[in-house]
Amino acid sequence: MFTMTQKARAVVRRVTAHPRLGRESGLRIASQDEDTDALGVAMASGPKRGDEVVERDGARVFLAEEAVPRVRGRLLDAVTEDGGRVRFVVRRAG
Prior knowledge:
Elements: E1 3-4, H1 6-15, E2 26-31, E3 39-44, E4 52-56, E5 59-63, H2 68-71, E6 74-80, E7 86-92
Parallel strand pairs: 1-6, 2-5
Antiparallel strand pairs: 2-3, 4-5, 6-7
């Protein structure tokens, strides 16, 4: 199971609340490109076909098919860096 910290849920809700994104919006986690194992996070107006949808407390995350096995049993967290920029990290749960 993929879960989110309280801070991550709050950030997801905040960044996806923009009216232009629509009610079905969320963050999508997918491979950044074919040549790397890195995962990327981007705002999305809704899930793509085949995405797994994880929703908790109004925070929606769409997991691309290739991302699901890599994040299973993990936790999405939001980290605030110097200067106030927020980035998402996936950590082991527990």
